[in-house]
Each structure stands twice: as C-alpha cells, then as structure tokens.
C-alpha cells in the first residue's frame, strides 16, 4: 500500500536519527514539563478517544509490529532493525489514517498543552541536529501520504455485552473495592518514578508481554474498554476519582477483555511484572491506604477472577 511504500522513504530519512537516540534514557519516563496530572489525564483521554476510533485490526497489527521490533533490538541505545523501524512507522501510519484528522490533532494539541516548549530543542541537542531535521522532513512527507489515505468518519462504536456473568461479578467487585479506590492518591507523581534497581531493557521485556496480550485481545472488547475509560475520565472528581457506576463499567469491560485471551498469556504478563516489581513497591503502596479497605478489595478481586476464568 501507499503508506507502506512511504514508510521506506521515511526510513531512509530517519533511521540515522533513530540510531542516535538513546532509547534507554530514563528521561523518557518524566513528565515533559511541569507535572500537571489532571491536565495530563485530559491528554491521555484524547489518546483513548483516538484509540477507540481506530480500526481494531490495524491496532492489532501495530501491536504485533512493536513486538517484532522489540525482538530485533541491538546495541547500547536499544534501537530496532531498519526493517522493523519501517514496519512500525507503516503500522502506526495506517492506524492514524483509520481515524479522522480532528481526533489526531486533538491528541497533538492536548500533548502540546502539557509539554514545555523547550523540550523539542533539548531532545534535538542530544542527537546530531541535521539528522533530526532530515527525519522531521521525512515525517512531513510521510504525513501527506497518510492524510491522502485518511478516513473522514470514525469506525463504529463497540458492541457492549450486557446481562453476562462478568458484568454481575463486576458489580460485586466494585462494591468491595470502591472504598480502596477512594483511598488511593491518583494525583501523586510516584507512578512516574523508575522501578527500583531495574534497567530499561529489563522493564521493556515485561512491557513486551503486555503488547503480546494486547495483540491477542478481542478488538471489539478492547474498543469497549477504551470507551468505558473515556466515560470514567469524564466523571472524575477533583482528586481524580471516577464515579462508582463508571468504575464498575471499567471493571466489567476489563474482566471481559481478560477473558478474551488465553490464561497463559495473562499469566505471562503477571509473572514478568512480578519479576521487576520489588516487594518494597507493593509494601509502600499498601502503607498509603486503609489496610482493611485494601484487603476487602483484594478479596473481591480473587473472587472476580474465578468468574473471569470460567468464561475464558
Ligand atoms: C516534537 C515532539 C516530540 C516531543 C516529545 C514530547 C511528547 C511527550 C509525551 C508524553 C506525555 C504522555 C504520557 C503518555 C503515557 C504516560 C503513562 C504514565 O519534538 C512541536 C511543538 C509542540 C511539541 C509538543 C507536542 C508533541 C506532540 C507529539 C505527538 C503526541 C504523541 C503522543 C505521545 C505519547 C505517547 C504515545 C503512546 O510540534 O515536535 C517538534 C515540533 O514541535 C517542532 O516544531 C515544528 C512546528 O510545529 C512546525 O510548524 C515547523 O515550524 C517545524 O519546520 C519546523 O517545527 C521547519 C520547516 O518548516 C520544515 O519544512 C523543515 O525544513 C524543518 O524546519 C527542518 O528543521
Ligand atoms: Mg509508541 C508515539 C515510544 C510502544 C503507539 N511512541 C511514540 C513516541 C515515542 C514512542 C518515540 C512519543 C514521543 C514522541 O512523539 O517522540 N512506543 C514507544 C516505545 C514503545 C512504544 C519506547 C515500547 C515498546 N507505541 C507503542 C505501542 C503502541 C504505540 C505498543 C500501540 C500499537 N506510539 C504509538 C502512537 C504514537 C506513538 C500511535 C505516536 O503518535 C507517537 C509519535 O511517534 O509521534 C510522533 C517523537 C517521535 C519519535 C522520536 C519517533 C518517530 C520518528 C519520526 C517518524 C521521525 C522523527 C521526527 C522528529 C525528529 C520528531 C517528531 C516530531 C513530531 C511533531 C512528529
Ligand atoms: Mg489501566 C491495570 C491505571 C487506562 C487497561 N490500570 C491498571 C492498574 C492501574 C491502572 C490502576 C495497574 C497497576 C496495578 O495493578 O494497580 N489505567 C490506569 C489509569 C488509566 C488507565 C490511571 C488512565 C486513564 N487501562 C487504561 C486503558 C486501558 C487499560 C485506556 C485499555 C482499555 N489497565 C488495563 C488492564 C489492566 C489495567 C487490562 C490491568 O490488568 C491492571 C490492573 O488493574 O491489574 C490488577 C493495582 C490495581 C488497582 C489499584 C485498580 C484495580 C482494583 C482491583 C480491581 C481490586 C484491587 C485488588 C488489590 C488490592 C490490588 C491488586 C492485586 C494484584 C495482585 C492483582
Ligand atoms: C502544525 C503547523 C502546520 C504544519 C503541520 C503542523 C503539525 C501537526 C502535527 C504534528 C500533528 C501531529 C500529530 C501527532 C499525533 C499523535 C497521536 C498519538 C496517539 C497515541 C495514541 C495512544 C494510544 C493507545 C493505543 C490504543 C488504545 C488506547 C491507548 C484501544 C482501543 C503544528 C506540520 C501540519 C504526532 C492513540 C494506541 C495503545 C491510549 O500543524 O503549519 O506535527 O504531529 O492506549 O486504544 O485500546
Ligand atoms: C498531521 C497533520 C494533519 C494530517 C494527519 C497528521 C499525521 C499524523 C501522524 C502520522 C502521526 C504519525 C505518527 C507516527 C509515529 C511513529 C512512531 C514510531 C516509533 C517507533 C519506535 C520503534 C522502536 C523501538 C522499540 C522499543 C525500543 C526503542 C526502539 C527501548 C526502550 C501531522 C495525517 C492527521 C508514524 C518507538 C519498539 C523496539 C527504537 O497529523 O493535517 O502521519 O504519523 O528500538 O525501546 O529500547
Ligand atoms: C526542533 C526544531 C525543529 C526541527 C525538529 C526539532 C527536533 C525535535 C526532536 C528531536 C524531538 C525529539 C524527540 C525524541 C523522542 C523520544 C522518545 C522516546 C521514548 C522512549 C521511551 C522509553 C522507555 C522506557 C520503557 C519503560 C520504562 C521507562 C523507560 C519504567 C516503569 C527542536 C528536528 C523537528 C527523540 C518511552 C519502555 C523501557 C523510559 O524540533 O525546527 O530531535 O528528538 O525506560 O518504564 O521504567
Ligand atoms: C498466584 C498464586 C496462586 C493463586 C493466584 C495467583 C495470582 C495470579 C494473578 C494475579 C495473575 C494476575 C494477572 C494480572 C494481569 C494483568 C494484565 C494486564 C495487561 C495489560 C495490558 C495493557 C495494554 C495495552 C492495551 C492494548 C494494546 C497494547 C497495550 C492494542 C492492540 C500468584 C491468585 C491464582 C493482574 C495488556 C490494553 C492498551 C500494551 O497465581 O496460588 O494476582 O493477577 O498498550 O494493544 O492496542
Ligand atoms: C488470574 C489467575 C488465572 C486466571 C485469570 C486471572 C485473572 C486476571 C484478571 C482479572 C486481571 C484483571 C484485571 C482487572 C483490573 C481492573 C482495573 C480497574 C481499574 C480502574 C480504574 C478506574 C479509574 C480511574 C480513571 C483514571 C483516573 C483514576 C480513576 C487519574 C490520574 C488472576 C482469569 C487469567 C479487572 C483505574 C480511569 C478515571 C480511579 O489471572 O488463573 O480477572 O481481572 O478515577 O486517573 O485520576
């Protein structure tokens, strides 16, 4: 397709730049400016809306391209192979083309809104400047091809299941865990802190398992879960807590999503995360909430998972 062809030209223009970026730099975990969690949540909401509007088949293909690209990483900077770099760009270009332009620009504008204007120049200062300019020039040509192939209307909204066992179980889980949800400091910057003692390549391994799980999920249920999150973000209070009803809808949607992939795929995510999350992290989280609320929530979760497993 045209986007695939254009991604080769983009690769010619941008792979030198890609090799110069230190992808293992911990700076990419930081907020791109002043830490403003509720404003950042708005930007993430625009990404969720864009994801929910995208073609699920193309999202799946993009997740698969990332998984493949992680497999061909080499060198100290963590760069993927030239071929996989091109495949990722092509796959993301197709995702962008499956969404109306306004939804893409809404993400750009909202991210710009939380980004310090000095950030792009600082990023450029870490690489060979002319290579960055060549890459940007390549991006500008690529985007014209994407725009030419872009839809004007979003894909149809998800079909949301109702009256199922997971939906009923989600009500119980949510009643048991909403007090715990209200105890959590959702606006803390602690969630942007590096995991103690873990390197970027180690962390990327666990993220790869999530990408693999995402690629196996049912596309309609993933879209429904994204829509449920978008609705939940719309009802957050000043502390970032969503309403009880929207919380329940998120749990139901995520339970159905988990049930749409094989158990081993879910356990691969759990086991790889358990490997990189030090017990001090979990203990620290526990110390910040009411312990009785946390135990009630955990009990609710372990009951819920049996219902999910039964429909898996
Ligand atoms: C950039 C963008 C990259 C900056 C990286 C910041 C993004 C951080 C995102 C993290 C927040 C989200 C959290 C995610 C999850 C966390 C979970 C805990 O360097 C601009 C200005 C605005 C920049 C900020 C907006 C960035 C938007 C990026 C897309 C959003 C994607 C979402 C990412 C999130 C995660 C994904 C899963 O646009 O951008 C550089 C540009 O900066 C440079 O400015 C441009 C002008 O816009 C353009 O008009 C033009 O002036 C150009 O061109 C210069 O500069 C000139 C000529 O006109 C060209 O023809 C050519 O010759 C060129 O010069 C060559 O130099
Ligand atoms: Mg990504 C984007 C890293 C998995 C879907 N992703 C980005 C970039 C960053 C990144 C490089 C955001 C910051 C930015 O804009 O820098 N993703 C990243 C990592 C992983 C990952 C490390 C780990 C595996 N992503 C992942 C998965 C998905 C996505 C699994 C779902 C399939 N990701 C996704 C989308 C988008 C990203 C849809 C974006 O739109 C965003 C992005 O790249 O926006 C431009 C700048 C970007 C780069 C350095 C890489 C692109 C290089 C281009 C082609 C040329 C360079 C131009 C210029 C010098 C800088 C960009 C200017 C900008 C205004 C366009
Ligand atoms: Mg999430 C999970 C935040 C958007 C899909 N998501 C998580 C949690 C965290 C979170 C609360 C990971 C950390 C953790 O396990 O804490 N998501 C979060 C935010 C946003 C978002 C802030 C922003 C809008 N997500 C989002 C979108 C999607 C997903 C758009 C795609 C549709 N998310 C997704 C999945 C999963 C998450 C598939 C998970 O599996 C993971 C998770 O919750 O695993 C348990 C602990 C969790 C909580 C504090 C909240 C859940 C409470 C449960 C139901 C009861 C509590 C049990 C116990 C006390 C703690 C967990 C024990 C553990 C062994 C399971
Ligand atoms: C400017 C000035 C003009 C010239 C110009 C110009 C530049 C405009 C630009 C630009 C626009 C632009 C847009 C970009 C958009 C990036 C969007 C990224 C979206 C990320 C998402 C992340 C996610 C997911 C995902 C799917 C999940 C939901 C999420 C489901 C169903 C200024 C050059 C024209 C870069 C969507 C993918 C996993 C949230 O106009 O003179 O330069 O860049 O998890 O969905 O699961
Ligand atoms: C524009 C203007 C509108 C019209 C429009 C428009 C276009 C927007 C577009 C577009 C946005 C867009 C985004 C693209 C992003 C590509 C990002 C590629 C990232 C590749 C990576 C590869 C890798 C790896 C990996 C992880 C490793 C690092 C690497 C570590 C820690 C402008 C059409 C709407 C194409 C990250 C995955 C292995 C490097 O909005 O008018 O057209 O395209 O090895 O991580 O090692
Ligand atoms: C300038 C002027 C214009 C011309 C221009 C220009 C340059 C702009 C530039 C540039 C922008 C730019 C951006 C770059 C962005 C790179 C983003 C990389 C993201 C990597 C991540 C990696 C990671 C991980 C991971 C998980 C870990 C955390 C991390 C935990 C819990 C000035 C040329 C346009 C280079 C996200 C995945 C392992 C961080 O605009 O005229 O030159 O470069 O380790 O999670 O640890
Ligand atoms: C233990 C001991 C036994 C008893 C037991 C027990 C507990 C096991 C447990 C547990 C397992 C477990 C699993 C959990 C899994 C969570 C998985 C989360 C996945 C997140 C993903 C994120 C993403 C995306 C997304 C889609 C994108 C890709 C991504 C596309 C196509 C120990 C109780 C049985 C909690 C997949 C969703 C946006 C990466 O066994 O005696 O306690 O918890 O962006 O994909 O866009
Ligand atoms: C298990 C054992 C195997 C069998 C198995 C199994 C099950 C795994 C499961 C499962 C995993 C799972 C995960 C679920 C997670 C639910 C997470 C809910 C999160 C809700 C949120 C709501 C909110 C918001 C929001 C953003 C705001 C904060 C809030 C900010 C900054 C165990 C079956 C495979 C159900 C986050 C979105 C508005 C609170 O593996 O043998 O069954 O379920 O307002 O953010 O304000």
Summarize this entry quickly:
The chain has 312 residues and is mainly alpha-helical. 70% of the residues lie in helices and 0% in strands.
Description:
With 312 residues, this protein is mainly alpha-helical. The protein folds into 2 domains: 2-148, Peridinin-chlorophyll A binding (Peridinin-chlorophyll Protein, Chain M), CATH 1.40.10; 165-310, Peridinin-chlorophyll A binding (Peridinin-chlorophyll Protein, Chain M, Alpha solenoid), CATH 1.40.10. The protein is 70% helix and 0% strand. α1 (2-20) packs across α4, α9 (200-216) runs antiparallel to α12 (263-276) and α10 (219-234) runs antiparallel to α11 (244-259). The longest helix has 20 residues, at 129-148. The radius of gyration is 21 Å and the shape is globular. The relative contact order is 0.14. The structure holds digalactosyl diacyl glycerol (dgdg), chlorophyll A (2 copies) and peridinin (PID) (5 copies). The site of one peridinin has 25 residues, from α3, α4, α5, α7 and α9. One peridinin binds at residues 59-60, 63, 210-211, 213-215, 222, 266-267, 269-270, 302.
Principal-axis shape equals globular
Distance between the termini: 36 Å
H/E element order: HHHHHHHHHHHHHH
Q: Strand share of the residues? A: under 5%
Oligomer designation: single chain
Question: Which topology of the largest domain does CATH recognise?
Answer: Peridinin-chlorophyll Protein, Chain M
Which bin fits the share of residues in helices?
Answer: over 70%
State the CATH architecture of the largest domain.
Alpha solenoid
State the CATH superfamily name of the largest domain.
Peridinin-chlorophyll A binding
The residue-averaged pLDDT reads: 98
Main sheet properties = none
Rounded Rg: 21 Å
- The overall strand count is 0
Structural class, judged by helices and strands?
A: mainly alpha
Number of helices, counting only DSSP H or I runs of 4 residues or more: 14
Which CATH class of the largest domain? Mainly Alpha
Are there runs of 5+ residues with pLDDT below 50, and where? Answer: none
Bound molecules: digalactosyl diacyl glycerol (dgdg), chlorophyll A, peridinin
What's the number of domains? 2
């Amino acid at each position: 397709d045209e986007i695939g062809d254009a991604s080769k030209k983009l690769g010619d223009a941008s792979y030198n730049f890609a090799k110069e970026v230190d992808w293992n730099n911990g700076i990419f975990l930081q907020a791109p400016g002043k830490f403003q969690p509720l404003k950042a949540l708005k930007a993430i909401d625009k990404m969720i809306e864009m994801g929910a509007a995208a073609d699920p088949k193309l999202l799946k293909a993009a997740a698969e391209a990332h998984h493949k690209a992680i497999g061909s990483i080499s060198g100290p900077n963590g760069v993927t192979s030239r071929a996989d770099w091109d495949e990722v760009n092509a796959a993301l270009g197709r995702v962008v083309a499956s969404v109306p332009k306004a939804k893409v620009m809404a993400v750009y504008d909202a991210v710009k809104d939380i980004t310090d204007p000095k950030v792009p120049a600082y990023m450029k200062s870490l690489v060979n400047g002319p290579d960055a300019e060549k890459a940007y020039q390549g991006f500008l040509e690529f985007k014209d091809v994407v725009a030419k192939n872009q839809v004007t209307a979003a894909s149809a909204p998800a079909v949301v299941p109702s009256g199922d066992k997971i939906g009923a179980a989600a009500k119980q889980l949510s009643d048991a865990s909403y007090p715990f949800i209200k105890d959590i400091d959702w606006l803390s910057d602690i969630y942007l802190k590096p995991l103690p003692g873990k390197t970027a390549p180690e962390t990327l391994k666990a993220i790869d398992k999530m990408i693999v799980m995402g690629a196996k999920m049912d596309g309609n249920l993933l879209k429904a879960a994204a829509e449920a999150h978008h609705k939940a973000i719309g009802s957050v209070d000043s502390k970032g807590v969503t309403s009880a009803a929207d919380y329940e809808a998120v749990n139901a949607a995520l339970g159905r999503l988990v049930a749409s992939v094989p158990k081993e795929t879910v356990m691969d995510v759990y086991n790889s995360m358990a490997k990189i999350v030090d017990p001090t992290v979990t203990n620290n989280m526990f110390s910040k909430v009411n312990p009785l609320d946390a135990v009630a929530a955990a009990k609710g979760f372990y009951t819920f998972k049996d219902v999910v497993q039964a429909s898996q």
